[in-house]
Amino acid sequence: MKKALVFIAFIPFLLSFNFTADAAEREDQQWQDESIYYIVVDRFMNGEMSNNEAVDLEDPKAYHGGDLSGIVDQLDYIKEMGFTTIQLSPIMENEKGGFHGFQVSDYRKVEEHFGTMDEAERVVEEAHARDLKVIFDLPAGFISKNHPWVNDETKSPWVTGNPVESEHPWFNQLPQVNLNHEAVQNYFKETMDYWREETGVDGFRIIVSDPVSGEFPLDDSPNTYIESIQESNSFRNMARKAFRKAGQFLDDLETGENHQQVNQIDFYDISRFTHEAVEEGQNPITRWKLALTYMFTAPGIPSVYYGTETPMDDGGDPQNLPMMNFKSGDEQLKQRIEKLSSMREQFPALTRGDYQELYNEEGLAVFIREYDGQQMVIAINNSEETKSMSLEELEDGLQLRGLLHDGLVRQRSDGSYRLGMERETADVFIVEANSGYNWLFIGFVGGVLALFVIAVVWISLKNRKQEK
Predict the structure, then answer these.
(1) Sheet holding 133-139: strands in order across?
(2) Which of 105, 179, 334, 418, by CA, is between 20 and 30 Å from 343?
(3) Class assignment of domain 30-351?
């Protein structure tokens, strides 16, 4: 009897099991296939107490104790969410009080508050052991005001003489590096080679002061990209505006196909999206679910800022970088990130596919990604009410299987596919052949249930006879 009950309890699992074959594994992993978790080293995890000099958790401008050892301690946490790459804020030696790492005083030393070169190497080794890549931030466009180059006459051509002009206090009035100078270019190429040799790091984000157009001589690695502190992040601006509250139309969603672009919603130079949603009187969990679904399925590489999964609130002040709290967090957001990461890993159409918008009206947006015969349809309803639409672009005899909400859409008699989305929801559908109903499996389960009922009745009758 107990064995039968155990089997019955196991049946729901069997019913939910997906018997379709996974997408073919990609042997040639490309940069656009990555998903990034960005870490502000000082605010992530304090793993080594011996380097806590000048740590003050009450001062938002002081060091808070996060270090390289702490990152190693939490690599499994990051891996469980499905990320393929971790990106670290600058770990090079910094000006006093430079907890953020962007006021470099020596490009080839590790900031002592963060650890040692051996610990930097261990971060990379442990990450690689978990099949995670590592990218270091490299602020090449500016240096600290007390950097040796500033007062070295032989290095005067290396500095432009025009300080950085920025609204962000981390960067404003810093000496600007002359990246057009051949000796400077050679220095940074050698510096990147140095870090690769010392730590095994996979690539860099090269941070410059002014936007770069055309080919840039420092960009020599498939895992290296360039960003300017001055350029406007169009994807981020669009996504935050679209998803900060329900009822917003999605007309301005980006329709470009830059698969190499790193997409963000939160970062250190803007207040947290969580706070913006709260200010609008919205549920930040719901808002994040929609925004993350879009970021992970649109062309480009999703980059998630540390603490997004909790979701972290900075009170509207981007200079307020709270320490990561691993005991807090919302399982709904973590699960959404896990599912979206898994989809990008399983379905190359989401990382390499062409992008086409199929429908965008009154807050409901539907688009399709196609690659090598694989089709994925993404539907996002940002409206405050249920919305539906008909897809007529698909071939006959197909079905759309939802990967987030387990919905199933089959072709109607008029040849269309009717998508219905509840308010403030999103789903990702794999387009596949119509499997119909699995009568063999249904018959098997039905037969087992019938045998179980018969067994229960027989045992019950037997027990009654024995009692008499």
Answers:
(1) 225-228, 203-208, 133-139, 85-88, 36-39, 301-305, 262-263
(2) 418
(3) alpha beta
Q: What is the pTM of this model?
A: 0.88
Query: What local confidence, expressed as pLDDT, does residue 20 receive?
Result: 38
311, two tokens: 């979701």
pLDDT for residue 390:
97
What are the DSSP calls for 393-455, one per residue?
Answer: SSPSSEEEEESSS--EEEB-TTS-EEEEE-TTEEEEEEEEE-----HHHHHHHHHHHHHHHHH
Asked whether the bond before 311 is cis by omega within 30 degrees of 0, the reply is: yes
The residue with tokens 């699995």 is: 438
- Average pLDDT on 201-208 reads 96
Radius of gyration in angstroms for the set of CA atoms belonging to the chain, rounded to a whole number: 27
> Residues 299, 303, 307, CA angle at the centre, nearest 5°?
145
C-alpha–C-alpha distance, residues 100 and 64, integer Å: 10
Which residue from 291, 295, 274, 292 is spatially nearest to 283, judged by alpha carbons?
A: 274
* Dist. CA 211–CA 78, nearest whole Å: 31
CA distance 310 to 37: 13
Please state, rounded to an integer, the average pLDDT across all residues of the chain: 90
